[in-house]
Amino acid sequence: ARLGNELRAAIAGNALTLHFQPLYSMPGNRISACEALVRWHHPERGMIPPDQFVGLAEENGLIHDLGEWVLRAACLEAAGWPEQVRIAVNVSPIQLRNPRFLSIVEGALACSGLAPARLEVEITENIFVQNSATNRDILHRLGQIGCSIVLDDFGTGYSSLGYLRSFRFQKIKIDRSFVQELPERGAAGIIRAIISLAQSMDIPITAEGVETHDQWTHLNALGCNQVQGFLLGRPQPSEMIRQSILSHA
Ligand code: G
Ligand code: G
Ligand code: MN
Ligand code: NA
C-alpha cells in the first residue's frame, strides 16, 4: 500500500522518467524507431525498473494514469526527433479496457503535435486470451486514428495463432528469449518459422534482445527487418537518445 501511494505521488509529481531504446532497420543500420521504457526515480531507492511497479500499477488501477503520463511524455519527446523516427510505447491490456483509452491517445498526439503514423502501440498477445470483440474493436479504432499496432513478445504468451487472422498487426516483435538462444538450432528454427509466417502475411518482423554480433548476422540472414538490443543500444535518457538519433537516423 505504501509503495502504491508513493507511486501515485510519483506520477502526479513527475518523478517518472522515460528511457528510450533504439530500433535499427536491417540491414541498413539506421535508427527507425525508439521504444519508450518507463523508470521511477525514487528519492530513497534510486532508479526503480518497470518490472517492479508496472504490475503493481495494473493491480491498483494506477496503470491508467501512469500509461497516460507515458504516452504524453513519449509523444512529446518524439515530436522533437527527425520525422522518419517513430516512437514505440508499451500498453498494458488493462489500459485498453479503459473507455477513455482512445481519447487519451488522441490527447497525447494532439498535445505533442506528433503525427499519428509515428506512434507504435506495443501490446502482448495476452490481450487475446479472451477472444474479445471489444479488444479487437479498440485495436481497429486505434488503427483508424493512424497509429501502428505492434505485437510484442511474440511467442511467449497465448499460444493459439488464430488471432493473427482476426487482427492485422503492422509489426511483430520476436521475444528476446528466442533471440538469446541463437545460434542454437531449436531457437533458429523457431525464429525462421516466425519470420516465414510473418512474411506470408506481409508483416515486418523485429527481433529484440540482440546482444551479440553473431545473433545479428543470423537474424539478418533469416530476413529479419529490424533489430533491438544491447548490441546496438541500451535504453538511454532523452539527451543521449537525441545524440544517437543524430548520428544514426
Ligand atoms: O525497461 P525494462 O527494460 O526494464 O522493461 C521491463 C518491462 O517493463 C518490459 O516488459 C516492458 O515492456 C515493460 N514496460 C516498460 N515501460 C513500460 C510502460 O511504459 N508501460 C507498460 N505497460 N510496460 C512498460
Ligand atoms: O517486454 P518488452 O519487449 O517491452 O521489453 C523491453 C525490455 O527488454 C526492457 O526491459 C529492456 O531493457 C530489455 N532489453 C532490451 N534489449 C535487451 C537486450 O539486448 N538484452 C536483454 N537482456 N534485455 C534487453
Ligand atoms: Mn516492448
Ligand atoms: Na518485448
TrEMBL record:
It comes from Komagataeibacter nataicola. This is Diguanylate cyclase. The chain holds residues 447 to 695 of 695 of the full protein. Residues 1-249 form the EAL domain.
